[in-house]
Amino acid sequence: MKKALKIVLAIIAVLIIAAILFAIFSPKPLPQMTTAVVEQGTVTQTIDLSGNLAYPQTRQVAFTQSGQVDGVYVALGSIVFEGDILAKFADGATKLPDGSTVTTTGLLITAPISGVVTGVLATPDTLVAAGQPVVVIDGPTRSFQVHAQVTESDVVTLSMQAFDATVTVDALPGVTFAGFVTSIAPSAIPLQGVVSYDAIITLDHIITDGKGGFDDLRAGMSASVSVITKTISDAIHIPQRAVLTHDDGSKFVRVISDNKEFGYDERAVIAGLRGDNGIIVITDGLAVGEPVVVSIKK
After folding, report:
1. Three-class secondary structure of residue 287 per DSSP
2. 165 neighbors 181 (Cβ within 8 angstroms)
3. Looking at the chain, which residues constitute the CATH 2.40.420.20 domain(s)?
4. Would you state the pLDDT for residue 155?
5. What class has domain 57-139?
6. In angstroms, what CA-CA distances link 206 with 83, 146, 174, 178, 211?
7. Which residues does residue 231 pair with via DSSP β-bridges, in sequence order?
8. What are the tens digits of pLDDT across the range 77-120?
9. Looking at the domain that runs over 51-55+143-232, which CATH code has it been given?
10. What is the CATH topology of the domain spanning 33-46+234-296?
11. pTM, 2 dp
């Protein structure tokens, strides 16, 4: 009986020692990793803005002398062309509020630009002073701009040159307009504690056809703008999250390898342009097709 017990205890001791040795010397399981493959292609960097459509010009049209309005020939929303008659003074003598009398004969005001009437400020038989606006015109017709705000972090980039842009309008799904940055305000406007600058993007032509076009645009419509600030062709790139930084500021990535302890080796890289969709350009240190670690599940 005692002999059998000793044998059992010996077997248990051997199993315990074997388990300890296995725990010490067996390979540890590699951590769960999310990986990506180094790719080559075009990388773009864009700045996204939002704003509202507006006409490039607003013109207030007035008579050059005081008098009584005889007829107004436009209404709100009327489309006018340069030279169209907008309003006319009554013929004959008109007594003004200050007691003086003026004589007007066939005095007309005409549209200085083609556009849409956005204000009618007088009616027939109204007395108006010289220079008092009678009709307001926004235009030219089919010419639109987007007025948007640019953050101070983006304004330096946009101020460097007239960048191309694409514009979409919420009211016209599927339609994309080409445009360009026309101007950036020199002074900032604090808005809810955020410093921003007014930017004007001019629409030029339609890139993709959808439901509608220039004739369907209206001042005040909401618009989204993507300004392409830089494009690099044939760039080697990886996800931005794959690039890490040492304490000294140098960049490195973790390249998948047969490293039995970690499953990857660290490699120094030189990073370039941060593109859209979380992509970053690598100018040195990686080759197309190499697998890199994006994240490790702890």
Report:
1. coil
2. yes
3. 33-46+234-296
4. 86
5. mainly beta
6. 29, 15, 11, 6, 12
7. 44
8. 899 999 999 999 988 777 767 667 777 777 899 999 999 999 99
9. 2.40.30.170
10. 2.40.420
11. 0.67
